[in-house]
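Hello Y.,

Per our agreement to keep a running log of every chain we model this quarter, I'm adding this entry. I've kept the format consistent with earlier entries: sequence first, then predicted structure.
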Amino acid sequence: MDLPKPQPYDIRRHLDHIRSSESYVAVSDRSFNQLSKISASNPHHARTPSSIHSFFTTSLTPPQAYHSIFLQDTDVRLIANFPLLPLRTRTRGPAYTLPALPSSIPAHESPDPDSESYDALDEVLSLYRANTFFRNFEIKGPADRLLIYGILTVGELLGKVPKVGGAREGEKALMNTALDNQFAMPGDAAFPLNQAFEAPRDRQDAETLRQYLSQVRQELAIRLLARLFAGNSTTPSK
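Predicted structure for the entry above:
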Protein backbone atom coordinates (compact mmCIF):
# COMPACT_ATOMS: atom_id res chain seq x y z
CA MET A 1 0.00 0.00 0.00
CA ASP A 2 1.44 3.36 -1.02
CA LEU A 3 1.54 5.90 1.78
CA PRO A 4 0.79 9.55 0.97
CA LYS A 5 3.87 11.68 0.52
CA PRO A 6 4.38 14.24 3.34
CA GLN A 7 3.53 17.77 2.27
CA PRO A 8 6.40 20.26 2.35
CA TYR A 9 6.19 22.81 5.13
CA ASP A 10 4.98 26.21 3.90
CA ILE A 11 7.63 28.42 5.47
CA ARG A 12 7.11 31.47 3.27
CA ARG A 13 3.77 32.40 4.80
CA HIS A 14 5.72 33.23 7.98
CA LEU A 15 8.29 35.23 6.01
CA ASP A 16 6.25 37.49 3.71
CA HIS A 17 6.44 40.38 6.17
CA ILE A 18 10.23 40.02 6.40
CA ARG A 19 10.89 40.57 2.68
CA SER A 20 9.09 43.93 2.79
CA SER A 21 11.48 45.17 5.47
CA GLU A 22 14.17 47.71 4.56
CA SER A 23 16.64 45.56 6.47
CA TYR A 24 15.78 42.40 4.54
CA VAL A 25 18.86 42.47 2.31
CA ALA A 26 21.15 43.60 5.11
CA VAL A 27 22.54 40.17 5.96
CA SER A 28 25.23 40.85 3.32
CA ASP A 29 26.01 39.67 -0.19
CA ARG A 30 28.81 37.58 1.31
CA SER A 31 26.04 35.01 1.80
CA PHE A 32 26.24 34.12 -1.89
CA ASN A 33 30.00 33.67 -1.75
CA GLN A 34 29.50 31.38 1.23
CA LEU A 35 26.90 29.37 -0.70
CA SER A 36 29.42 28.43 -3.36
CA LYS A 37 31.74 27.00 -0.70
CA ILE A 38 28.90 25.07 0.92
CA SER A 39 27.65 23.74 -2.43
CA ALA A 40 31.06 22.41 -3.28
CA SER A 41 31.31 20.47 -0.03
CA ASN A 42 27.85 18.97 0.43
CA PRO A 43 25.15 17.56 -1.88
CA HIS A 44 22.35 19.14 0.17
CA HIS A 45 23.44 22.46 -1.32
CA ALA A 46 23.25 21.66 -5.00
CA ARG A 47 23.16 25.16 -6.50
CA THR A 48 25.82 27.82 -6.75
CA PRO A 49 25.38 31.59 -6.38
CA SER A 50 25.59 32.00 -10.17
CA SER A 51 22.69 29.59 -10.70
CA ILE A 52 20.69 31.41 -8.01
CA HIS A 53 21.29 34.70 -9.79
CA SER A 54 20.25 33.11 -13.08
CA PHE A 55 17.02 31.85 -11.52
CA PHE A 56 16.06 35.21 -10.06
CA THR A 57 16.70 36.98 -13.36
CA THR A 58 15.59 34.53 -16.04
CA SER A 59 13.99 31.31 -14.80
CA LEU A 60 10.31 30.59 -14.28
CA THR A 61 10.90 27.19 -12.67
CA PRO A 62 11.64 27.51 -8.96
CA PRO A 63 14.70 25.58 -7.70
CA GLN A 64 14.74 23.63 -4.46
CA ALA A 65 15.36 25.32 -1.14
CA TYR A 66 18.69 24.77 0.57
CA HIS A 67 18.88 22.17 3.33
CA SER A 68 21.26 22.01 6.25
CA ILE A 69 24.67 20.44 5.77
CA PHE A 70 24.33 19.28 9.39
CA LEU A 71 21.71 16.70 8.39
CA GLN A 72 24.62 14.28 8.12
CA ASP A 73 25.40 14.71 11.84
CA THR A 74 23.43 11.90 13.48
CA ASP A 75 25.09 11.85 16.92
CA VAL A 76 23.26 14.96 18.14
CA ARG A 77 21.11 15.36 21.22
CA LEU A 78 17.43 15.94 20.44
CA ILE A 79 14.70 17.50 22.52
CA ALA A 80 11.51 16.28 20.89
CA ASN A 81 12.55 16.65 17.24
CA PHE A 82 14.78 19.73 17.67
CA PRO A 83 18.58 19.28 17.59
CA LEU A 84 20.98 20.83 20.09
CA LEU A 85 23.79 21.32 17.58
CA PRO A 86 27.15 22.72 18.73
CA LEU A 87 27.49 26.51 18.57
CA ARG A 88 30.36 28.96 18.38
CA THR A 89 29.31 31.17 21.25
CA ARG A 90 30.37 32.61 24.58
CA THR A 91 26.79 32.74 25.82
CA ARG A 92 26.18 30.28 28.64
CA GLY A 93 23.84 27.39 27.97
CA PRO A 94 23.55 23.70 27.09
CA ALA A 95 25.17 23.92 23.63
CA TYR A 96 28.55 22.29 23.11
CA THR A 97 30.94 25.17 22.40
CA LEU A 98 32.98 25.20 19.19
CA PRO A 99 36.37 26.94 18.84
CA ALA A 100 36.32 30.72 18.48
CA LEU A 101 36.47 32.42 15.08
CA PRO A 102 40.08 32.53 13.82
CA SER A 103 41.67 35.95 14.27
CA SER A 104 42.19 36.21 10.50
CA ILE A 105 38.42 36.27 9.88
CA PRO A 106 36.53 39.52 10.60
CA ALA A 107 33.57 39.32 12.97
CA HIS A 108 31.14 40.14 10.15
CA GLU A 109 32.18 37.09 8.11
CA SER A 110 31.83 33.32 8.55
CA PRO A 111 34.55 30.67 8.35
CA ASP A 112 34.55 28.09 5.57
CA PRO A 113 32.08 25.23 6.08
CA ASP A 114 34.93 22.77 6.60
CA SER A 115 36.35 24.85 9.47
CA GLU A 116 36.04 23.49 13.01
CA SER A 117 34.53 26.84 13.98
CA TYR A 118 31.72 26.73 11.40
CA ASP A 119 28.33 26.18 13.03
CA ALA A 120 24.64 26.03 12.19
CA LEU A 121 24.23 29.78 12.76
CA ASP A 122 26.82 30.55 10.10
CA GLU A 123 24.65 28.43 7.85
CA VAL A 124 21.48 30.30 8.87
CA LEU A 125 23.05 33.64 7.94
CA SER A 126 24.46 32.25 4.69
CA LEU A 127 21.14 30.77 3.56
CA TYR A 128 18.77 33.40 4.92
CA ARG A 129 18.36 35.47 1.78
CA ALA A 130 18.12 32.50 -0.56
CA ASN A 131 15.72 30.36 1.46
CA THR A 132 13.23 33.12 2.21
CA PHE A 133 12.32 33.16 -1.50
CA PHE A 134 10.90 29.64 -1.37
CA ARG A 135 7.30 28.95 -0.45
CA ASN A 136 7.80 25.30 0.50
CA PHE A 137 10.49 23.69 2.58
CA GLU A 138 10.52 19.91 2.96
CA ILE A 139 12.11 19.07 6.30
CA LYS A 140 14.60 16.26 5.80
CA GLY A 141 15.81 15.95 9.38
CA PRO A 142 16.28 17.69 12.74
CA ALA A 143 19.02 20.05 11.50
CA ASP A 144 16.55 21.57 9.04
CA ARG A 145 14.38 22.59 11.99
CA LEU A 146 17.22 24.61 13.48
CA LEU A 147 17.76 26.16 10.05
CA ILE A 148 14.08 27.15 9.82
CA TYR A 149 14.00 28.48 13.38
CA GLY A 150 17.18 30.46 12.79
CA ILE A 151 15.83 32.02 9.58
CA LEU A 152 12.64 33.11 11.32
CA THR A 153 14.66 34.51 14.23
CA VAL A 154 16.84 36.52 11.83
CA GLY A 155 13.67 37.94 10.29
CA GLU A 156 12.32 38.85 13.71
CA LEU A 157 15.59 40.56 14.66
CA LEU A 158 15.84 42.48 11.39
CA GLY A 159 12.33 43.77 11.98
CA LYS A 160 13.59 45.40 15.18
CA VAL A 161 16.45 47.30 13.54
CA PRO A 162 15.67 51.04 13.71
CA LYS A 163 15.47 52.81 10.35
CA VAL A 164 17.51 55.67 11.75
CA GLY A 165 20.26 55.69 14.33
CA GLY A 166 23.65 54.09 14.59
CA ALA A 167 25.20 50.92 15.94
CA ARG A 168 24.36 51.76 19.54
CA GLU A 169 20.64 52.04 18.81
CA GLY A 170 20.76 48.91 16.67
CA GLU A 171 22.56 46.95 19.39
CA LYS A 172 20.02 48.03 21.99
CA ALA A 173 17.06 47.02 19.82
CA LEU A 174 18.46 43.63 18.78
CA MET A 175 19.88 42.59 22.14
CA ASN A 176 16.69 43.58 23.99
CA THR A 177 14.80 41.29 21.64
CA ALA A 178 17.33 38.46 21.92
CA LEU A 179 17.52 38.68 25.71
CA ASP A 180 13.75 38.63 26.20
CA ASN A 181 13.19 35.16 27.64
CA GLN A 182 9.44 35.18 27.00
CA PHE A 183 9.70 34.01 23.38
CA ALA A 184 7.33 31.31 22.10
CA MET A 185 8.56 27.71 22.15
CA PRO A 186 7.49 24.56 20.32
CA GLY A 187 4.20 23.48 21.82
CA ASP A 188 3.17 27.01 22.87
CA ALA A 189 0.00 28.31 21.27
CA ALA A 190 1.89 31.35 19.94
CA PHE A 191 4.64 29.30 18.27
CA PRO A 192 4.06 29.53 14.50
CA LEU A 193 5.72 26.21 13.55
CA ASN A 194 3.88 23.68 15.71
CA GLN A 195 2.85 21.62 12.70
CA ALA A 196 6.51 20.75 12.11
CA PHE A 197 7.95 20.97 15.65
CA GLU A 198 7.14 18.71 18.58
CA ALA A 199 6.68 20.03 22.11
CA PRO A 200 9.20 19.03 24.81
CA ARG A 201 8.04 15.99 26.77
CA ASP A 202 8.48 17.48 30.26
CA ARG A 203 9.42 20.61 32.18
CA GLN A 204 13.12 19.76 32.33
CA ASP A 205 13.36 19.29 28.56
CA ALA A 206 11.39 22.50 28.04
CA GLU A 207 13.80 24.47 30.22
CA THR A 208 16.85 23.00 28.46
CA LEU A 209 15.38 23.82 25.05
CA ARG A 210 14.55 27.36 26.16
CA GLN A 211 18.16 27.84 27.30
CA TYR A 212 19.47 26.52 23.99
CA LEU A 213 17.12 28.68 21.91
CA SER A 214 18.16 31.66 24.02
CA GLN A 215 21.78 30.94 23.07
CA VAL A 216 20.74 30.77 19.41
CA ARG A 217 18.84 34.06 19.60
CA GLN A 218 21.61 35.94 21.40
CA GLU A 219 24.37 34.65 19.12
CA LEU A 220 22.37 35.49 15.99
CA ALA A 221 21.81 39.01 17.32
CA ILE A 222 25.55 39.46 17.96
CA ARG A 223 26.49 38.25 14.47
CA LEU A 224 23.79 40.31 12.80
CA LEU A 225 25.07 43.44 14.53
CA ALA A 226 28.58 42.73 13.25
CA ARG A 227 27.23 42.41 9.69
CA LEU A 228 24.75 45.26 9.77
CA PHE A 229 27.18 47.84 11.07
CA ALA A 230 30.49 46.57 9.67
CA GLY A 231 32.58 49.67 8.92
CA ASN A 232 29.54 51.95 9.28
CA SER A 233 28.29 53.12 12.66
CA THR A 234 25.57 55.43 11.39
CA THR A 235 23.19 53.32 9.28
CA PRO A 236 22.61 49.56 8.88
CA SER A 237 24.27 47.92 5.92
CA LYS A 238 22.04 47.02 2.98
